[in-house]
Amino acid sequence: MSRQLRKVLLATGIGHFVEWFDFGLYGTLATIIGMQFFQADDPATALLSSFAVFGAGFVIRPLGGLWFGSRGDRTGRRKVLATVILLTSGATFSIGLLPTYAQAGLLATVLLVLVRMIQGFAAGGESAGATTFLAEYAPADRRGYFTCWTDSFGFMAFVAGSGLVLLLTAILGEAAMNDWGWRIPFLLAGPLGWIGLYLRNNLQDSPEFQALVNSRQTEPAPLHRAVTTGRRALGFCIGFVAIKAVVHWMLQTFIPAYLVAALHYPALDAYTITTLGLLAVAVLVPFMGYLSDRIGRKPLMLVGCLGLILVAWPAMKMMASGEVFSAVLGLLLVGLCIAAFDGASNAAMAELFPTRIRYGSMAIAYNLAVALFGGVTPWLLAWLLTATGNPLSPALYVMVAALITLLTVLRARETAGLPLRT
């Protein structure tokens, strides 16, 4: 690997880490946020309210994708990615300073919603931009390996967030954590954001985009071109993201609260289970990315989807057993399947679109899918639990999403090893 490529991977990856550390903290602390920012007679109602606000950030993500994606295709990837991380880290830092419902009443809830909307708008430009940037730097025969690091760094960020909450809970105790300790992780977003901003500002734009600029072939209306000429590719991309959105946000946001509120695990055990499961995914994804460059994108994506259809129900049953070891094993089964899918899917999405409209096209499709599937995941799974009274019911939603993506992948063509279109 060349020095320049290592620098790009590190800067993009660490920036992505900071972005998703910030964004994922809300999910990890959803139970506490429900108690702090909503007036509710019972924890289940407060948790549903917390997840509803979490989903509000996803509703606005497509607008962020439209804005940042268009600018990324017209003015460059690097500048947009720097702006994105500045906005997200600033919004996350602000959550740590907000008054609670007990201090400010409904105003506290309104402020939380506004900050989440800013977070969601900025996040609309992150995943598509980071994947585009890495895909345009990577050699054709290693594109799967390099692009999959965005998901690996994202899961590392979730591990760091979950691990930090675990550590603070162990040191401070649950009472202090619920009272004021929950603010600490959000306040750390400030300095972390400046680190990510510095790294991204010290990169050059991708060779593929610079070539377009030098030849004066950048697309003046990338979103119009994407919608009018790339509808089929957009449809494939949305289908690919469906299962990613559901499982990513189930693992990070729903599972910690599910283990505590529905299955009555102690908070320390719940954070331990989640941290170990997320760590396993972060470690496995690069190996799967390497494998996707050797055997193709479709085989790994199909295995991931089929695996989730088969293991979702048994995995939830293992988590519901009440035993920490069984819960970790169940989470690992789900993690192995999504790692296989993630190892191939980022490159597969980038390879759907030509360079002149890649950022914007991916941002449109990715964020529409995340808004449709990922944003509602925590709320819908919590609602399923409440409506059915069955602790295994969340598995059904995972299975449906995996089937949608499976049918999409079956219709897609193999793109591994092919040069990127301009």
Please specify the SSE layout and strand pairing:
Blueprint: H1 3-28, H2 30-37, H3 43-59, H4 61-75, H5 77-95, H6 101-104, H7 106-123, H8 126-137, H9 143-147, H10 149-172, H11 174-181, H12 183-187, H13 189-201, H14 207-214, H15 222-229, H16 231-262, H17 267-295, H18 297-319, H19 324-350, H20 358-374, H21 377-388, H22 394-411
Helix pairs in contact: 1-5, 1-8, 1-10, 1-13, 1-16, 2-3, 3-7, 3-21, 4-5, 4-7, 4-20, 5-7, 5-8, 5-13, 8-20, 10-11, 10-17, 16-17, 16-19, 16-20, 16-21, 16-22, 17-18, 17-19, 18-19, 18-22
Overview of this protein structure:
By secondary structure, the chain is mostly helical. It has a single domain (about 5-410), classed as Growth Hormone, Chain: A (Up-down Bundle), CATH 1.20.1250.20. It is about 80% helix and about 0% strand. It contains 22 helices and no strands. Helix 4 (about 60-75) packs antiparallel against helix 20 and helix 8 packs across helix 20 (about 360-375).
